Amino acid sequence: MDSTVLNAQGAWLLASLCWLTLLWGAVSDIRRRIVPDTCSVLFLAFWVIDMMVAPVLTWQTVLFALAVGSAVFLGGFALFVLGGMGGGDVKWLTAISLWAAGAYNGGGIATLQVLVATFIIGGILALTIMPYLYYCHKRDRIPLRRVMRSFEFPFAPAIAIGGAWVVWHIYGASL
Fold this sequence. Notes:
This protein has seven helices and no strands. It is mostly helical.
């Protein structure tokens, strides 16, 4: 986001709304294993707001953001079909990617940062849960494969951390 267009108060407000939405989605996924659709809709609204305050809004910018969002959705949908990601996670990651692609000059880089940070953090979180799953395997004498299949990993916290990192990079200079 070009800090000359969005003053410090506007940047602070948008960054705060983004962070609160990220926190809400992560906590909801941890507690109920559901990312509310409202979280995805809010990031779509943030994308529209960022498009409206952009110094130069071109069709190429909008189409690029839509193309990036579509690509993320298709990749997420493939993971959903394979059982590697929940539907709410796919929708939310798509909305955040669309927002990142449109909110920042060079939006493809911002979206790549969201995806890389999300999957690195997700991998770290998964590795930290593995000892617990192994403990359940030993305690209950259930095959480890069955224990792992029965566990629903909340991926939204990883999405939220990746999103928060990019929010800081997009609005941080204006804060």
